[in-house]
Amino acid sequence: MKWMRFQIRTRVEAEDILVSGMQDIGLHGAQIEDHVPLTAAEKEQMFVDILPDAQPDDGSAVLSFFVEETEAGTLVLDGEEKTPDEVKAGIEEQIEEMRQYCDYIGDGAVTVYETEDIDWINNWKQYFHQFMIDDILVIPSWEKVEIQPDGTPADDGPTAVFGDPEKKPFNLVFHIDPGTAFGTGMHETTQLCIREIRKFLRPDTKILDIGTGSGILGILSLMLGADSVVGTDLDPCTVPAVSENLEANGVDPSKFTLHIGNLISDQKLQDEVGYEKYDIVVANILADVLVMLTPSAVAALKPGGVFITSGIIDGYEDTVKDAMVKAGLTIEEVTDQGEWHCVTGRKA
User: Fold this and answer.
1) What is the value of pTM for the model shown?
2) Are 2-117 and 188-347 equal in CATH topology?
3) 162 pLDDT above the threshold of 50
4) How many whole angstroms from its chain centre is CA 253?
5) 210 near 292, Cβ under 8 Å?
6) To the nearest 10°, the Cα dihedral for 133, 134, 136, 139?
7) C-alpha distance from residue 234 to each of 46, 177, 219 (Å)
8) Tens digit of pLDDT for each residue in 281-327?
9) Which residues does 222 contact at the CB level (< 8 Å), separation at least 6?
10) What is the mean pLDDT of the chain?
């Protein structure tokens, strides 16, 4: 399947009116690209490892509209067949009409591209292969590994990706299918969290995982011997992702309770999660969000428990440490991997 992409160069302030004007000629579902900075509320929603790179906001914007191409090479808009040139001419005519009452459209140049229909849902899998986190083998659902009795990969197994000529033994195999919405565990911030959790993990440990995603931290904790895990996340896609990864690893789902919502501002969720219940609270998010999250995390933590935070890039570790100290925690340690940091604080 092929699509024609009609791209309009414009200004941020004209985005809405252009989208509305294009709907009048049969173009729907705009893709908008600009450099408008994220608001505080948007940052709060971004429970991710890495904040997207932001270029300076110069006020420019690009709108793209996609129209499916027929086998004959024509396009269908509102039931009428048109050539790409006719559609482009219609867009340009509409823009000129709008300029009569809207003087902030900017350039208004229209560019046409042909693009192939790509299987975005599965195409990314070619870049994710099994890898090691210390003695843990993390392997996607579409790969297999043969294990010898001593726990090392078999000679004829798909182990070249390890790059380890000594075939370092692994003690645990963690199966994951992250889907397109969540991380795989390859990022430094996730690995920092895993190592830190292992330092404090005991058989009776109860864990709160804030920003659960695909459930990597919580499920691995259960496999390593934790008693139970409660997870929170903003994204409803977390529910099937965690469920599938629990099943893939043979972990009892009754030990993992998941809540969808914002622990920073949702009082009902805070009550459901509970207070002074957890030996470990872990959050692999962003420094700005961690600062806002710290009071709620500390409230959920048992006396003597630890708050493990990651997702902190160079230069922001002191910001997180200050928030922890302000909330009554003592800094236990700071660990590093590359340009990323993990700050752990203990509740008195």
Assistant:
1) 0.65
2) no
3) no
4) 23
5) no
6) 40
7) 9, 19, 18
8) 999 988 888 999 999 999 999 999 999 999 898 899 999 999 999 99
9) 228, 229, 251, 252, 255, 256
10) 84
Which contacts qualify for 134-138: CB closer than 8 Å, 24 or more apart? 134/195, 135/168, 135/169, 135/170, 135/171, 135/172, 136/170, 136/171, 136/172, 136/173, 136/174, 136/194, 136/220, 137/170, 137/172, 137/173, 137/174, 138/174, 138/176, 138/184, 138/185, 138/186
Q: List the domain boundaries for the chain.
A: 2-117, 119-176, 188-347
Please give the radius of gyration of the chain, using alpha carbons only, rounded to the nearest integer: 25
Q: Render pLDDT for 90-101 as a digit per residue (tens, 0 to 9).
A: 999 999 999 988
Provide the CATH topology of domain 188-347. Answer: Rossmann fold (3.40.50)
Say what the pLDDT of residue 156 is.
43
- Please list the residues that pair with 77 across neighbouring strands: 80
Locate tokens 């925690």: which residue?
329
Given CATH 3.40.630, say whether it is the number of domain 2-117.
no
| Neighbour count for residue 105 (Cβ, 10 Å) | 19
